[in-house]
Design brief:
Number of strands: 2
Structural class: mainly alpha
Strand content: under 5%
Oligomer: single chain
Strand order of the largest sheet: 1-2
Length: 217
């Protein structure tokens, strides 16, 4: 692979990127507020096409009102819809939360499962959300979260040539140690939000400026 710093092995390029980003964002973490796997599950469902800041505002009251999977499963759909309305797409999100809660009650004794196969069976939970839950709530690195920020940065930094999230995740998993997969996702998201923005990336402030093939400096 060729970068602005010259020809480099892709794994060495990835290692350099990771070293610099860890130094830049040493405290990167999930920015959704939660105290249990169930709360993180609900917050992650609500975060679809919504900012984490807005979700955290909504879940302050939501988590006081609904404390268990049973509470969600027995909720009135229209009432739950109003409780989460400001997160957008509230009807579909309420349907997913209710559906997931019922499955948790029926199959998992009200607990959020900690395997990929079981998580992706829940309504509103695809592989990205499952990775968030596994890595953040259970400390299990099964993959790398690929959201819009991770997707954008992976391509800009030439860590992948793919556009499909599943293939991007596969490339990232091959380039970075398993122990770093969860932190990698959080760090790339943070860097994407604050520096490597979609429309106007702040290349002059970026610690990767000299090795980024997409740098606009």
């Amino acid at each position: 692979m060729t970068t602005k710093a010259g020809a480099k092995d892709i794994k060495q390029h990835a290692a350099t990127i990771w070293k610099r980003l860890k130094e830049r964002w040493p405290d990167a973490r999930c920015t959704l507020d939660f105290k249990s796997p169930l709360e993180l599950l609900v917050a992650a469902v609500l975060s679809a096409q919504c900012t984490d800041e807005r979700v955290n505002q909504v879940t302050k009251g939501l988590f006081r009102k609904y404390k268990t999977a049973r509470d969600y499963a027995s909720a009135k759909p229209q009432e739950l819809e109003q409780d989460i309305r400001s997160t957008g797409f509230y009807r579909n999100k309420a349907k997913n939360i209710l559906g997931a809660a019922k499955i948790l009650q029926e199959r998992h004794e009200g607990r959020v499962p900690d395997t990929m196969d079981e998580l992706v069976e829940l309504p509103g939970v695809a592989r990205k959300t499952a990775n968030v839950l596994l890595g953040t709530a259970f400390g299990k690195a099964e993959g790398v979260v690929v959201d819009t920020h991770v997707h954008r940065l992976s391509r800009r930094l030439a860590l992948t040539e793919h556009d499909d999230p599943v293939k991007i995740e596969r490339d990232l998993m091959a380039l970075f140690p398993r122990r770093d997969w969860t932190a990698l996702g959080h760090t790339l998201v943070l860097h994407g939000r604050h520096v490597c923005r979609a429309r106007k990336p702040l290349c002059g402030e970026c610690v990767l400026n000299d090795i980024c093939p997409s740098s606009e400096r």
